[in-house]
TrEMBL record:
This is Maleylpyruvate isomerase family mycothiol-dependent enzyme. Gene3D superfamilies: dinb family like domain. Keywords: Isomerase, Pyruvate. GO terms for molecular function: isomerase activity; metal ion binding. Residues 9-96 form the Mycothiol-dependent maleylpyruvate isomerase metal-binding domain. The keyword Isomerase applies. InterPro entries: DinB/YfiT-like, Maleyloyr_isom, MDMPI_metal-binding. Coiled coil: none annotated.
Length: 196
């Protein structure tokens, strides 16, 4: 767990530094998450540190049992209620937080931070390359249900990373950088053209 926690903390630190340097106007720019600005994405990333289990369950109950509907409502409400400084302070205070999704793994927590970080940087045109040692555990931990969660069908598809030794599946070959494949697997349409 120590190695993955170190990797997660490094990713959060890089994201914090990037967000701290963002011009104020960029916080209100669209992200790759449909309907969310950068501000909503950061509110969502930090939600895990601010919401207790009972609060999440209550929110889901109010959202008809849908976590996605609850998370969307929470991100929008929190983005409106919290200042940029508040959001940055929350991220800063939780760089070393040992959070993982309920029923998930620490690799899933890393994926959460990496993917949402890319939601911001790719949308803003920031040429940030996530280090391969952070992308590898995400790709190696790939499970078909994860891609299905994002509406991506990997049946009859063979994924091949061009910048590290990693492959997945069988069928029509799709080759791309590890970063592009992480975006593709997570249903980020902006990455589809980068992989071929």
């Amino acid at each position: 767990m120590t190695d993955i926690q170190t990797t997660i903390a490094a990713e959060r630190t890089d994201l914090l530094n990037l967000l701290t340097a963002l011009p104020a106007a960029d916080w209100d720019s669209p992200s790759l998450c449909a309907g969310w600005r950068v501000r909503e994405v950061v509110a969502h990333i930090t939600m895990a540190y601010r919401y207790s289990g009972p609060r999440v369950l209550l929110g889901m109950a109010k959202a008809g049992g849908s976590f996605n509907r609850f998370a969307d409502r929470a991100a929008r409400a929190d983005a409106a209620a919290m200042s940029t400084a508040d959001l940055l302070d929350c991220l800063r205070s939780n760089v070393d937080n040992v959070w993982k999704p309920p029923g998930g793994r620490y690799e899933d927590a890393l994926a959460h931070d990496v993917i949402h970080g890319l939601d911001i940087t790719v949308a803003l045109g920031i040429d940030r390359q996530v280090p391969l040692d952070r992308l590898r555990p995400i790709l190696e931990g790939l499970r078909p249900k994860q891609a299905k969660y994002f509406g991506v069908d990997l049946s009859n598809t063979a994924l091949r990373a061009s910048d590290l030794e990693w492959s997945y599946g069988a069928g029509e070959v799709v080759t791309g950088t590890a970063q592009d494949l992480v975006l593709l697997i997570s249903g980020r349409a902006a990455s589809a053209a980068a992989a071929s």
